[in-house]
Specification:
The chain is α+β, with helices and mostly antiparallel strands. It contains 7 helices and 3 strands; from the N terminus they run ααβααββααα.
């Protein structure tokens, strides 16, 4: 039951659902997610920790960057089911569409910081 409750709690916040929708486009660092959501870095980091603990996202280190992507759901069947279902939901949401349109701008943040 713990895995089910974790997944449901993680999905109970609109910002975390938005993160999952934008991660459908590919992996992102915290600074990119922060830019897209318009939230402070500590807030984004807290959201990412909750999503990771629920088995919805995974992270990997690349140099000084921590990059987040959607999990394959191998840790939780509930996370896997929700990620599968979420792919078909919210495509017409104006907030999600706007964030997807802003992805190139957000990606430039990481590129500029690498220079």
């Amino acid at each position: 039951m713990r895995q089910f409750i974790q997944a449901m709690k993680a999905l109970s916040d609109p910002s975390r659902v938005a993160v999952l929708k934008i991660l459908e486009q590919g992996e992102l660092c915290v600074c990119e997610i922060q830019h897209l959501l318009g939230l402070a870095q500590p807030t984004v980091s807290k959201h990412m920790k909750i999503l990771e603990e629920a088995g919805l996202v995974k992270r990997r280190r690349e140099g000084t960057w921590i990059l987040y992507s959607l999990s394959a759901g191998e840790e939780s069947p509930y996370a896997q089911t929700m990620l599968t279902q979420l792919k078909d939901w919210l495509q017409d949401d104006p907030g999600v569409r706007k964030m997807i349109q802003l992805l190139p701008e957000a990606a430039a943040l990481r590129s500029n910081k690498n220079s």
